[in-house]
């Protein structure tokens, strides 16, 4: 059917609005990249919006030359990998077990899990619990508290319940037990959902600065986002000018060419680019997995 003039006008307005939305999302990253690749003193004069006017790598040399941020990167990568794999394993196991309608006390368990989504004990009781468990000021404070997500479990359970029961029944007739059914049937069919939930979990771990700021006191255990939060609230460059490599970078560049803002922009770009590079490869699984897990039942 041929679109009417009014429909074409409406589609044009939608396209324009979407383009404006895309520009509003992309431009801040372009601006930060331009500032990070520009000498600080020149950028402070203003007028740098889309590309660097006085190109330099010195801001990235200073950031990457800092031992604290390099170690923070290792902490962030480790917690993201361990936390995502562990979270998916526990979420899948819980969702698979609770998908069996004949499971004793199944409704009571589901109700109890639902209550944890609606009510929370608060920050102070949670901190006391972490302290009593010996998790504060350790690497595992980033991993263990987030291993189970009630929301992810319900979405995963909904997806598993959408798998035809005939597959489970035929596997049971062939002598397959619950573990074999999980590994050979549920996991292969759940790849889109696992990718979507894995992306949710990984982004949550990568962007979390709160845990490092409140549950850890050792500077050797802070993740990169906590370091970034400390840098963004800093008043001078003393927090990032400690290593020998930074001193060498300063020796090759006048201090007038470096500002706190330019170093901040370089740190923001370094912390954001890895997750932005991974997201496009998982986007199709993200949309497909969430849609299937939300609708199937």
From TrEMBL:
Its membrane topology: Multi-pass membrane protein
Q: Which organism is it from?
A: Paenibacillus catalpae
Q: Where are the transmembrane segments?
A: 12-34, 72-97, 109-128, 140-160, 258-282
GO biological processes: transmembrane transport
State the family it belongs to.
Belongs to the binding-protein-dependent transport system permease family.
Q: Which GO terms describe its cellular component?
A: plasma membrane
Query: What is the protein's major site of localization?
Result: membrane
Q: What SUPFAM superfamilies does the entry give?
A: MetI-like (SSF161098)
Protein's UniProt name: Putative aldouronate transport system permease protein
Pfam families associated with the record: BPD_transp_1 (PF00528)
Q: Where in the cell is it found?
A: Cell membrane
Domain ABC transmembrane type-1 as annotated: residue spans: 73-282
Q: Which UniProt keywords apply?
A: Cell membrane, Membrane, Transmembrane, Transmembrane helix, Transport
Q: Which Gene3D superfamilies match?
A: MetI-like
């Amino acid at each position: 059917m041929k679109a009417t003039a009014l429909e074409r006008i409406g589609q044009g307005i939608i396209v324009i609005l979407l383009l404006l939305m895309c520009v509003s999302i992309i431009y801040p990253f372009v601006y930060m990249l331009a500032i990070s690749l520009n000498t600080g003193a020149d950028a402070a004069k203003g007028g740098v919006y889309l590309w660097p006017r006085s190109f330099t790598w010195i801001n990235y040399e200073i950031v990457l030359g800092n031992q604290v941020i390099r170690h923070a990167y290792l902490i962030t990568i480790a917690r993201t990998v361990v936390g995502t794999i562990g979270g998916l394993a526990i979420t899948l196991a819980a969702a698979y077990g609770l998908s069996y309608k004949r499971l004793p006390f199944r409704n009571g368990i589901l109700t109890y899990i639902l209550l944890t989504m609606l009510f929370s004990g608060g920050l102070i009781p949670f901190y006391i619990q972490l302290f009593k468990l010996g998790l504060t000021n350790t690497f595992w404070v980033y991993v263990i508290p987030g291993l189970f997500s009630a929301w992810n479990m319900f979405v995963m359970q909904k997806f598993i319940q959408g798998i035809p029961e005939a597959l489970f029944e035929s596997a049971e007739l062939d002598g397959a037990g619950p573990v074999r059914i999980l590994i050979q049937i549920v996991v292969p069919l759940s790849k889109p959902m696992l990718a979507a939930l894995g992306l949710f979990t990984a982004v949550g771990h990568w962007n979390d600065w709160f845990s490092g700021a409140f549950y850890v006191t050792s500077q050797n255990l802070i993740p990169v986002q906590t370091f970034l939060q400390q840098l963004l609230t800093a008043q001078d460059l003393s927090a990032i000018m400690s290593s020998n490599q930074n001193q060498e970078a300063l020796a090759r560049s006048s201090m007038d060419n470096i500002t706190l803002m330019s170093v901040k922009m370089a740190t923001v770009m370094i912390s954001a680019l890895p997750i932005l590079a991974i997201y496009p490869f998982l986007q199709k699984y993200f949309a497909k997995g969430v849609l299937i897990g939300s609708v199937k039942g």
